[in-house]
Amino acid sequence: MKIDQETLQKIAHLARLNFDAQTGEKMSADLSQVLDWVAQLQEIDTQNVAPLTSMSSEINVLREDQVGVQLTQEQALKNAPKQENGFFSVPKVME
Question: 8: closest CA among 36, 38, 39, 30?
């Protein structure tokens, strides 16, 4: 599929891109090539192909949650460098 200059300018405006005429020609050719590739992929029969849920064949190793030692608020704050009114006190990261 050939991308004309009007469509390219509309896409560039929506993407907030600015480029000169020479770069526009290259961009138009690249976009046309991508759309041709997508059209080629759409021709493939995927009727009997199960959808993938992951690109990796790795399987997560999960464990059961176990209840451990439960700390009181006082115990949790015992080693805190700074605390204020029963909460951890941390420096601001945004003004």
Answer: 30
